[in-house]
């Protein structure tokens, strides 16, 4: 089967598509994207997630791939979203069973995959990481997502990767990484510096990047501090894992001209020249869809889900 229906579930949206896994690597993936009410009751939220699929021409009795952020029990299809501010109503819910009853065209199964792993596998199959055996992929959005790939499969255990293969579980300078590198942390650091200087400027991360391009000292220092810390946190794990390439994606990667030098400086603070080759995603929008489709194909074929 080359036509694989997929969903990518984000904090504010859901994207539905049918991925032709037999198409050329640069073939675009037509998709339907709709908002989801992340704080809605479970039934309303699940209806919205499945609703995007009703706009597609779907294969009958297909095995679906679904990319979704954690915390989530991916093998059981059960939400674990307690206390994180999104999808709280799905905590303890059998999302797989609920979606099977809502998706059109009589689906025969669903395989769930972490959204950062889906992004990484999409870039491995048809993007910047194609042809590379060992790759580290990082997504920069609300928080920091990560995937350590070996031969296209996520590595989630062992001494070469962080716990669960997730860099957001790391600490840097004595603090959890996402208290230093996340949308919330970046805005807080910038706001504190501006307040200390007697300035009050409302800003989002995109605004801070724009200010940094004009030479604003608070914005420049914020980017150097936050993303230098990310480089320092990643450096020892890249040394252990030995990636041939790092791929960065996510909404913040659009400012890579600013973030990239700061990340590399963080690597150099660990050891000069420690950074592997670093690129931005070749297909940032649809890599998670491609990855989720190949994940579903592998699961339906009985291929083990991860390498340990």
Written description of the protein model:
The protein has 308 residues and is of the alpha/beta class. The protein folds into 2 domains: 3-113 and 286-300, Nucleotidyltransferase, domain 5 (2-Layer Sandwich); 128-280, Nucleotidyltransferase, domain 5 (2-Layer Sandwich). The chain is built from 8 helices and 14 strands. The chain has helices spanning 42-51, 95-100, 115-126, 183-196, 205-213, 217-241, 256-270, 287-300, and strands spanning 3-9, 13-20, 31-35, 63-68, 72-73, 78-79, 109-114, 134-140, 144-150, 153-154, 171-172, 175-176, 245-249, 278-280. It has a 5-stranded mixed beta sheet, with helices on both faces. A hairpin with a 2-residue loop joins strand 9 (144-150) and strand 10. The radius of gyration is 20 Å and the shape is globular. The model has no long low-confidence stretch (mean pLDDT 92).
Sum up the structure in keywords.
308 residues; alpha/beta; Nucleotidyltransferase, domain 5; five-stranded mixed β-sheet
Topology readout:
Blueprint (H helix, E strand, L loop, with lengths): L2 E7 L3 E8 L10 E5 L6 H10 L11 E6 L3 E2 L4 E2 L15 H6 L8 E6 H12 L7 E7 L3 E7 L2 E2 L16 E2 L2 E2 L6 H14 L8 H9 L3 H25 L3 E5 L6 H15 L7 E3 L6 H14 L8
Parallel strand pairs: 1-4, 4-7, 8-13, 13-14
Antiparallel strand pairs: 1-2, 2-3, 5-6, 8-9, 9-10, 11-12
Helix pairs in contact: 3-8, 4-6, 5-6, 6-7
Rg, rounded, reads 20 Å
CATH architecture of the largest domain: 2-Layer Sandwich
Looking at CATH, the homologous superfamily of the largest domain is ATPase, nucleotide binding domain
Structural category: alpha/beta
Question: What's the number of extended β-strand segments?
Answer: 14
Number of domains: 2
With helices defined by DSSP (H or I, 4 residues minimum), what is the helix count? 8
Largest sheet: 5 strands, mixed
Order of helices and strands: EEEHEEEHEHEEEEEHHHEHEH
CATH class of the largest domain: Alpha Beta
Task: Tell me the fraction of residues in β-strands, as a range.
Answer: 15-25%
Q: In percent, how helical is the residue content?
A: 25-40%
In one word, what is the shape?
Answer: globular
The overall average pLDDT, rounded, is 92
Low-confidence stretches: none
Strand order of the largest sheet: 3-2-1-4-7
Distance between the termini: 28 Å
Q: Examine the coordinates and then state which fold CATH places here, giving the name of the CATH topology of the largest domain.
A: Nucleotidyltransferase, domain 5
């Amino acid at each position: 089967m080359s036509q694989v229906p997929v969903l990518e579930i984000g904090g504010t949206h859901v994207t539905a598509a049918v991925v032709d896994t037999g198409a050329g690597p640069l073939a675009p993936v037509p998709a339907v994207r709709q908002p989801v009410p992340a704080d809605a009751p479970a039934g309303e939220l699940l209806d919205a997630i499945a609703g995007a699929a009703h706009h597609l021409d779907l294969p009958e009795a297909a095995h679906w791939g679904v990319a979704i952020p954690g915390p989530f029990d991916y093998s059981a299809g059960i939400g674990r979203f307690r206390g994180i501010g999104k999808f709280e109503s799905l905590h303890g819910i059998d999302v797989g069973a609920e979606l099977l009853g809502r998706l059109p065209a009589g689906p025969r199964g669903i395989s769930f995959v972490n959204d950062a792993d889906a992004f990484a596998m999409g870039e491995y199959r048809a993007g910047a990481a194609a042809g590379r055996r060992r790759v580290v992929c990082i997504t920069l959005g609300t928080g920091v997502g990560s995937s350590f790939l070996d031969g296209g499969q996520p590595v989630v255990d062992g001494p070469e990767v962080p716990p669960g293969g997730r860099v957001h579980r790391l600490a840097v300078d004595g603090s959890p990484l996402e208290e230093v590198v996340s949308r919330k942390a970046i805005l807080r650091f910038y706001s504190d510096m501006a307040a200390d200087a007697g300035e009050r400027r409302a800003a989002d991360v995109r605004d801070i990047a724009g200010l940094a391009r004009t030479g604003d000292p608070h914005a420049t220092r914020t980017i150097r501090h936050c993303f230098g810390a990310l480089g320092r946190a990643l450096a020892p794990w890249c040394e252990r894992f030995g990636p041939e390439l790092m791929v960065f994606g996510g909404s913040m990667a659009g400012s890579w001209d600013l973030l990239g030098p700061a990340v590399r400086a963080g690597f150099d603070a660990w050891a000069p020249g420690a950074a592997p080759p670093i690129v931005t995603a070749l297909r940032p929008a649809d890599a998670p869809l491609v990855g989720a489709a190949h994940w579903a194909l592998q699961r339906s074929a009985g291929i083990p889900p991860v390498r340990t």
